[in-house]
Amino acid sequence: MMLSDVMEDYLKAIYQLQGEHEERIKTSAIADALEVTSPTVTSMLEKLEDRGLVDREKYRGVTLTDEGETVALEVVRHHRLLEAYLTEHLDYDWSEVHAEADRLEHHISEDFEARVADALDEPEVDPHGSPIPSADLEPPDRSAGKSVTEFAEGDVVVVEEVADHDPEVLSYLATHGVEPGVELEILEVAPFGMVTARSSETVDDVSLPEGVAHHVRVTPLPQAES
Amino acid sequence: MMLSDVMEDYLKAIYQLQGEHEERIKTSAIADALEVTSPTVTSMLEKLEDRGLVDREKYRGVTLTDEGETVALEVVRHHRLLEAYLTEHLDYDWSEVHAEADRLEHHISEDFEARVADALDEPEVDPHGSPIPSADLEPPDRSAGKSVTEFAEGDVVVVEEVADHDPEVLSYLATHGVEPGVELEILEVAPFGMVTARSSETVDDVSLPEGVAHHVRVTPLPQAES
DNA sequence: GTTTAGGGTTAGATGGGTCTAAATCGGTGT
DNA sequence: ACACCGATTTAGACCCATCTAACCCTAAAC
């Protein structure tokens, strides 16, 4: 099946929205994610439905079919492998890789994908801690980690994934010690969602507005310490 | 100026045709190179003319303007840097790099270009021996080497460039010792253009049909030997 | 100089991806 | 139950890159 770059982008966006929220993805959510208008999304969804890549219920949103999910996983694999490769071998900072990977993800061959995976020794996560789908494109488990907003004062957690894409936000997080692998002690969770934490990496505390904190996924420290 | 990938392809094709033959490039030559029909080429040439990238004389072909040439050089630089990178760092064979570079050349950022050039230490030629335009995009000298078909029995030459793109042809040439840097002793130039030569690299002789030989560019050995 | 073959251009259609404006659906609140 | 508001779809348009069919120009042959 011959898919355009744009179609792949829609499938990837739907996949990622299905990961964040659930089930049916609405037209407007896709429109926001891809920065197009909703009529544009509607007409694209019709095409994807014709090709059997999404299940659609008019006025109620879409879900990916198995076939659509496989395509999305392929694109996500390309994207995350590229991000990993760019940081490992071309000296990119994690804050910069997203945009470059977005440009390239649709234009690499299967051969290129395999060589990159090989050069990286089949990595399991990208520089943001996001899991890289395996070569067989089996749907991975996406339940790893919870948003840091779900924890409370005093909890100590390990950062698993920083799923933001904005270079400025990522640079800020890095300079304040919020990166995959670091320990975070939760100092405060404000009623409006802002999380303040202390990183094991830096001296100063960090405050993360809700929008940012939502993308920081963490797991509780195996054994707690006061 | 925002150019589409396709426009870049046209400019690159015109640039390369201007290198091979001369001056005005005809519609049909571009159509052959890009595998589209001639009306398609005509309409694209009109667009490129509107943007000041080509000079066009109806029914008589086009030439690149300075601006058009700069765009073409940028694309060619991307292409050849990618070819070099793929062979150096991702273990590609020289016969395979062209297709991959063609896919990627329009989709890398200036930053990526710079990082690749840096990783390769600003290379001057790609794996086929073709010169890589410098970062300032000044038009390079394209007179290096002459086609091997212009030599005669007994001449000894050094291969500078193998400008073919067909993987099968390139594999064949490599296994018969025809690659940039090797010495070739011309054994015969048949009236229909076929060149037979002996490579300094291999024992067996190679025969190159005219179409292939035309792409093998060589320079005479500094000091001749019988 | 006229003819003619071959290539170039014009005309008109198609499909992809996008938009704006207008119509319509569906859930919420009364 | 019903009206309303916000979200969705329909309708109609546009631009890009491409095609086929038909027409026309150029240059070479006579």
UniProtKB/TrEMBL annotation, chains A, B:
Q: Cross-referenced Pfam families, in alphabetical order?
A: Fe_dep_repr_C, Fe_dep_repress, FeoA
**Molecular function terms from GO:** DNA binding; DNA-binding transcription factor activity; protein dimerization activity; transition metal ion binding
Region of interest (Disordered), ranges: 122-146
Which UniProt keywords are given for this protein, alphabetically ordered? DNA-binding, Iron, Transcription, Transcription regulation
Q: Where is the HTH dtxR-type domain?
A: 3-65
Localization of this protein: Cytoplasm
An example Gene Ontology CC term for this record? cytoplasm
Q: Which family does it belong to?
A: Belongs to the DtxR/MntR family.
What name is this protein filed under?
A: DtxR family iron (Metal) dependent repressor
